[in-house]
Design brief:
Layout (H helix, E strand, L loop, with lengths): L2 E2 L1 H12 L10 E6 L21 E2 L10 E3 L4 E2 L8 E10 L9 E14 L6 E2 L9 E3 L2
Antiparallel strand pairs: 1-7, 2-3, 2-6, 4-9, 5-8, 6-7
């Protein structure tokens, strides 16, 4: 999966084609996944470790040709306990994996899986359309 989640696609269709109000979006956070979260936001794919917490996305650049990128640096806490392999990154509304109302909005696979060792910090650092998180919708 890459791009819109099922819930985001449904919200867009409802708002643009069915005249329904677009749902209010809470603060967006980055989330890391150990497997493809799928369009349906499959449970059990988000990193589950004591050190892990979602981090706010911060600002995104104005879209151009259906694409945008994060305009601010975002850092996850340092890894503790045991290494973890991350395969996907996503944007979720809701600040914790325990939030049952949190919705996956977008996700994409990493260019290559990353094995995070103890004390590693996963950084989403992009200032261009070639960075860590590029939202390409067209």
């Amino acid at each position: 999966m890459s791009g819109f989640s099922t819930s985001m696609a449904n919200a867009i269709i409802n708002a643009t084609l069915r005249g329904q109000a677009f749902p209010a979006i809470r603060t967006p956070y980055y989330a890391l996944f150990t497997a493809d979260p799928t369009d349906a936001f499959t449970a059990g794919t988000e990193v589950a470790a004591a050190w892990y917490q979602r981090v706010p996305t911060g600002a995104f650049a104005a879209p151009g040709n259906g694409a945008s990128y994060n305009a601010t640096r975002a850092e996850f806490p340092p890894v503790t306990g045991a290494p973890v392999t991350v395969t996907h990154i996503g944007i979720v509304e809701g600040d914790s994996a325990g939030d049952a109302t949190a919705t996956l909005m977008y996700s994409e696979p990493l260019a290559a899986q990353r094995i995070l060792q103890i004390n590693d910090v996963f950084v989403v650092d992009s200032q261009a359309l070639t960075g860590d998180f590029v939202l390409q919708l067209l």
